[in-house]
Every structure is written in C-alpha cells, then in structure tokens.
Amino acid sequence: MEIHIIQGDITQIECDAIVNAANNSLLGGGGVDGAIHRQAGKELLEECRTLHGCATGDAKVTKGYRLSARYVIHTVGPVYRDGQHDEAKLLKSCYKKCLEKAEAYQCHHIAFPSISTGAYRYPTSQAAQIAMETIEQFEAHYVQRVDIVCFDDYTYRTYCQLLKKNNKSA
Ligand code: ADP
User: Fold this and answer.
1) Are 2 and 145 in contact (CB under 8 A)?
2) Within its chain, how far is the Cα of 105 from the centroid?
3) Most exposed of 9, 61, 135, 150 (fewest Cβ within 10 Å)?
4) Closest atom, ligand 1, to C-alpha of 76
5) In 3D, which of 82, 88, 91, 73 has the Cα closest to residue 22?
6) Which residues pair with 147 in a beta bridge?
C-alpha cells in the first residue's frame, strides 16, 4: 500500500472515498466537516440524518454526492483532554474503522484528513504518529493508495517528517 502526504483541500481529491473528521451528531460542523458538506451539497446532510450519529472512534459511510469521491467515510475523532482519556486508542480506532469501511466498499484509493488535530486539539505530532502507524500496519486487500491530506503548512511538515523517518528505518 502506498502512502502519500499531500498539502491541499480534501474536497478536491479524486479518489474512491474521502474521510470526514465529523462530530458525534454527523449533522455538520466546522473545519473539514463544513468544507465537505458545502462541496457535497445538501443531499449529504439528508443521508447523514438517517444514520443517527456516530460514536467516537467509529465510522459510517455515505455517498459523496457532488464530490468527486464516490463515498464519504465519516469518523469521529476524540477531543484531546490530557492524553489520559483513551484519546490514543480512540484515534487509532478511527483510522482502523475507516480502512475497514474502505475495504468493505472495495475502495482502491482513499484520502484522510488529519483527524482530531483541529478543533479537537490533538497534538499534531502525536496524532500523526498514530495515523501513520495504524495505516502502515493495516492489512489491505483492496486499498492500494492512501493520501493524507494536510490543509496547513505545519500539519504537512509534521506528517512529511514522519514519513521520511519511517522510510529511513525500513
Ligand atoms: P477535528 O474536529 O477532528 O479536530 P477539524 O476539521 O477541526 O477536525 O480539523 C482537522 C484537520 O483538518 C485540521 O488539520 C484542519 O486544518 C484540517 N482541515 C480543515 N479543512 C480542511 C480541508 N478542506 N481539507 C483537508 N483538511 C482540512
């Protein structure tokens, strides 16, 4: 499986499924969630209403509507408090559940945002480590390419450094 770190807007990525860092209601929010809903159109919110929310660490799938991605995999990352409230376990579970959904929907190419590192305040370097580790350890059959789409410079640089480090030790 190839992992690519990309700087940009996840709503513009052409792939089989993009991941949304949503909240428990799945009824829209700010950050990447707001951007995905704006781009997908109101049908996305209508489908989300039928899902009755999503637990932290879990993932649910909808169609992509006006996005170029066929599916949106909605996951809910943990709000970071002090690192003593299962944050790492829950964040790992987000990545794993999303990859499992991607497999179930036979996706070859998927894109993740940096889950929990915006409004949910997970320290970026720790979150990036969990993201990369979980993706690298996943045994995929359909998924051949994973893009991690970083919106801002700092997030992009943090993920790139980790990718370099991991390649060196391999
Ligand atoms: P969370 O509530 O899980 O922290 P946020 O949307 O607040 O989710 O932030 C998660 C990450 O997504 C942040 O790094 C933020 O800069 C980034 N982000 C915001 N908009 C986009 C977008 N359009 N594409 C990709 N990443 C985005």
Assistant:
1) yes
2) 16
3) 9
4) 3
5) 73
6) 4, 111
16, 102 Cβ separation under 8 angstroms: yes
DSSP SS3 for 129: helix
**Would you call 33 a catalytic residue per the annotation?**
yes
Question: Other C-beta atoms within 10 Å of 169: how many?
Answer: 5
Q: Are strands 71-76 and 59-63 parallel, antiparallel or unpaired?
A: antiparallel
Judge if ipTM > 0.95. yes
Nearest by Cα to 112 from 91, 90, 85: 91
What is the greatest pairwise CA distance in the chain?
Answer: 46
Residue 125 has which token pair?
A: 């370097």
Residue 94, both tokens: 């987000």
User: How many residues make up the chain in this entry?
Assistant: 170
Establish whether residue 155 lines the binding site of ligand 1, counting it when its CB lies within 6 angstroms of any ligand atom.
Answer: yes
Question: Per-residue pLDDT tens for 83-100?
Answer: 999 999 999 999 999 999
Q: Are 41 and 50 in contact (CB under 8 A)?
A: no
Q: Which ligand 1 atom is at minimum distance from the Cα of 121?
A: 4
Atom 3 of ligand 1: nearest residue by CA position? 116
Over the stretch 102-153, which tens digit does the pLDDT of each residue have?
Answer: 999 999 999 999 999 999 999 999 999 999 999 999 999 999 999 999 999 9
Give one DSSP letter per residue of 30-70, joined into a string.
SHHHHHHHHHH-HHHHHHHHTTT---TT-EEEEE-TTSSSS
